[in-house]
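Loading example: each entry is read as three labelled lines plus one structure line.
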Amino acid sequence: MTKYIIRRLLQTIPVLIGVSILVFSLMFLIPGDPARVMAGEGASEQTIENLREKLGLNDPAYVQYGRFITSAVKGDLGNSVRSGRPVMDEISARFWITVELSIYATILSVFIGLIAGIVSAVRHYTLTDIFIMIIALFGLSMPNFWLGLVLIQWFALGNLPFGMDMPAWLFDIVQMRPSGWGESWRQMVLPVITLGTGGAAIIARMTRSSMLEVIGQDYIRTARAKGVSERLVIYRHALKNALIPVVTVIGLEFGGFLGGAVLTETIFAINGMGRLTIDAIRQRDFPIVQGTVLVISIIFVLVNLLVDISYKFLNKRIDLN
Amino acid sequence: MSVQTEKVTNATRSNPRVEAFKTFSKRLLKNKAAVVGGLVILFIIIVGLVGPFILKTDPNAQNLVNKLQPPSKEHWFGTDNFGRDIFTRIIFGTQLTLKVGFLSVFIGGIIGVVVGIVAGYYGGMIDTITMRIMDILLAFPGILLALAIVSVLGGSLINVIIAVGIFSVPAFARIVRGSTLQVRKLEYIDAVKALGASDGRIIFLHILPNIMSPIIVQATMRIATAILTASGLAFLGLGAQPPAPEWGAMLNEGRTYMHNASHMVMFPGMMIIIVVLAFNIFGDGLRDALDPKMKQ
Amino acid sequence: MTQQLENILEVNNLQTVFATEGGEVRAVDGVSFVVPKGKTIGIVGESGSGKSITSLSILRLLAKNGKVNDGEILFKGKDLLKLTDKQMRDIRGNQISMIFQEPMTSLNPVYTVGQQISETLIIHKKISKQEAMKQSVDMLKLVGIPSPEKRVKQYPHELSGGMRQRVMIAMALACDPEILIADEPTTALDVTIQAQILELIRDLQNRLDMSVIMITHDLGVVAETCDYVAVMYAGQVVEYSDVRTLFKNPKHPYTLGLLNSLPRHDVDQEKLIPIKGMVPSPHDMPVGCRFAPRCPVATQACHTKPPMLESIGNNEQIRCWMYSEEWDGDSEVTLYGEKRTVKG
């Protein structure tokens, strides 16, 4: 086990270095002169030259990378081309908003996904199962930004389909104010649903197939042969085994939410890292883009590392079979 | 005598594959959902290819007097903020959606399959290095990798195809590598090798045909993901540029008018769902038919 | 041998079917046998003969696509097929227990050995967790597991295959059942371990005075452990007799074939003679005797009319035309190099 953790930690290092190289080289993928692109149209030659100097674009690539990585390790990701503020400051002001959103979305998708998946597996090939799986397929196939727009249309603007009226309590719960994120948990409801629905669908499908596989195992037959009731066979003997592979998806989902927040934050005007990224892309503020992409990827890699280790830990008993 | 033996081995070699294909198509046809999914895909492709010629109207024809009209007999899906017919735009947009879906998966698939086979077949350092590179690509969660690539290349349909293509590479590479490792272990590969077959011959004639099923399933599922990702990029204004009738871009335009013209958002969104759903269902069906073990 | 024994289990005309892609399949078709109290009965046959399905039918543990169509399974006079699910659960693991072929996969990987043995005790005896754990230790001791106090806290993956099968036995016997069904309990184990497990089952049977149904494909296991034997072929019992008679004077051509394809030490054999042909597919059963296509002495009647399981003599039943009044072949036949007179 310790050996596995050490090996897995060592494996993470080249990945992190690779990620940093890739993020760094984004700058070189910019067609034409990066300084000119960043300076924007109509900038004077002098401005462009100044910017080039400031970003150190005149140095050879490896020198630039060396500078990039050494300051990145120290927590310095350069300065924003637009505001001139350190990238790290811009990010840290918004970091928790996105992480919080992603955590809630993860909780929601795990909660709903597990329940739906278990019910579906227990009643497989019944109408309930078919119904849940159809809903899950829709959840999987729906662009989450579209779902967000529909939710705004229905609940925030109050235009429910078929001219339905929204009960006051429901309005209270889902009411969304475009600005002032963080005042209360209510404002998170719609964004979290928007972000988490696809994930819930994935977990539901995965839990179902995992449960069905476990139900076919020999030890389930043993439990039945012992006289264990069907309910306990499912909840005591099958579920615990079936959940182990589902754990792996949770890490992937969390990361996906961090990335997907780009869309959700744009729709709901939430001032998180995703919105920061999009605004930076529009303003050609590449140091910010590099910074957010780097930070999100590093979190993702670390979360997956944790998930892999816990999976290994949970799976240790099964592994040898 | 030797000719005869040749014939026999040929027959025994091709027969199992024909048989496998027969059982596969039988199982696929039995799966009603998959058949419906396949038919919807077929229908969408036909609409994408033929639709623009039948309609003969200009998807960008503006008519400001008629702007933001709700669905009616003249305008089935209503009109947008420039008075353009949304139905026409959606039909014309079908081609863009399919182009993004198929081309990006084609690009990502080719690269991914080559990487996966090479890594799985040669193993050792090549395997370690290529798979680590795939890990690096996978370290950018969700839409982020495609977003980063498009952000530097600039927003356009072709750049979205490239970005989503690259985004698809690791998924293919991993699956293909896994399948290659399994096939490589089979004894007959050793036998063919002992007979002096070149690596290229073994890969193309003996490994590739044996791992086609997971590749096909993966490609179908990836098209769904690719369409979703591309529409997300377009929604952010990083895909096909206006006035292209790209569905995601239409959603982005419709956002502003949602309070009084929700049809601008509803119809393109539903089209995306239908197409993505069709590919997902068809992919599920393919997987079940190709690998019945996965289905209980 | 003639003394009348009380039968604890009676299986009459059991018929189990499975719904498959190619239509309904009769995996067990009219199986009958009795299990005398305190004795071991072997059910022997090739894979696919329906012996495991028979045992799963008794405990009503068939997979979802399988069901018992006909027949009765009388346990102490009560028909198990007529019980409610709840009543059936009270019998499973309590009065009738079962152990399986694959000890590696038959224990739940996420619970300790102790938890799994305790569960049976808690369900059926309604005792506390602590008490159940104490009895679990005793059970592990009973099945010969060294340092049971330590083992009880271990997970299945920490035990060897033989150990796991002992744990399975401990679990099965925890509630002191009247019947133990052992479905190929030694097939997946090493040869040396096999002997130990069989020895253990035999020893515990004597001590606990229970009946054992031993499902196996191995006539060696039958010879070593069983009092009575039912030979199954293609979903039917073709011969039922006590074990001595079966080995000394096998009657059914299939039984003879099985014995002849085994190397034996007690008699001189010129060579081993395999049974020709293959087990018929359940989708395509012969109309007459199911063994007829492979039988060296099959006649016209054998191919057209299915024989019944008939009693001949004391405690012996045979499903073969050769031993009936209607036999239309020679009165003296040669079976696997052995002359025998079938009808006087």
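Chain B is about 75% helix and 0% strand.
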